[in-house]
Amino acid sequence: MATLDKTQAKQPNRAAFVNGMKAVRDVHFEHADGRLIHEIGSEAETKAFEEFTQFAGEHPVFKRASPFWRLACLRARKFDMGRALQLLTNYYEWCDEYGIHTRTYHKDELFKQLVERGVAVTFGNKDKTGRYILTLRPSRNNPAIFSPRYTITNIHAAIECLLRHYPEAQARGVVFVCDLSGYTIKHMDSRIPREVFTAFSKRIPVRFGGVYVLNPPFFMRMVFPIVRAFMSEKMKERMKLISNGYGQLREFVAEDQLPTFMNGSYPTDVDARIELIKQMQEENEYAEVDSALSSHTQSAVSLSTESLADSGRLSTYSEASDASSQGSARPAVQKKRVAMLAAALDDGDEDLDDIGHVAIV
User: Fold this and answer.
1) Which residues pair with 5 in a beta bridge?
2) pLDDT for residue 10
3) Where would you tag: which of 151, 157, 316, 325 has the fewest CB atoms within 10 A of its CB?
4) Is there a contact between 147 and 103 (Cβ–Cβ < 8 Å)?
5) Count of C-beta atoms within a 10 Å radius of residue 82
6) How far apart are the C-alpha atoms of 159 and 133, rounded to whole Å?
7) pLDDT digits (tens, 9 = 90+) for 199-232
């Protein structure tokens, strides 16, 4: 049984709803047009990344950040180095504030339940403009148990999984398909849209393509005009209300890109999706340990784009279930690395050379 997150799960009152909608009005999005500035992995992109590295120099957040998030921020800001560095700083400050990297499948039961409920999911499908789809199913959430910060952490995990396995989503952008099937008054939490919109406008390195609001119940169709009144004109253009079921969604998403649970033919392997999130978070913990090692000595193992790829990260969702057994030894190895790091720090770093030889399996 889930434990109530007492610090965050209190339901907002009417005044909080109004304030939340006003906050949404002030949000500015980096809108996605589905076009790439540089082809993913091209020589031009590699050169731009090298220039970004020189531009950032000894910036503390840049040094802390993994190569993946550095490049994600550069792509999300269309290779504007100053704005990319600011986004990278915003992202890591936001992660620290929200505990994004501390709420994981293995460590947090509430987060685990949200992942298994499938509140926020990505499978690699796209709309007709080429933007990748994040599917939200709010009726699977319970605001009385799961705070907005748990919900946003779940969305972040789904987005990160998408960006790592479909890198062009960083440039082409992401659209939300918010399926309100089964949604009732008890599922409403006005804080969640505010948290989501703020995160995507200033913190998460992905370009926002729009929202398809699908199957809204009657009371939501009544509320929707009020919500629209607080939106910018650009946001109004990018929010589509789809009241006539999954068939109407085909106007924006081809049948072969609609998931099977929306009467489409796009394959969805729920178990593989969960396995990918588990493995991704394990590897993120590796990155944190290696970052701590490299910050204390240059002889420690440093992460590069190539080493991340070689560590066993999967390239497609379909490979996840086949590779699950290969990741079973990782937690034990990581614990050994953490223990060795702690001992090395206590002993004045003299054992750090040995830590670099603990292999990733």
Assistant:
1) none
2) 47
3) 325
4) no
5) 9
6) 10
7) 777 888 888 888 899 998 888 777 777 777 777 7
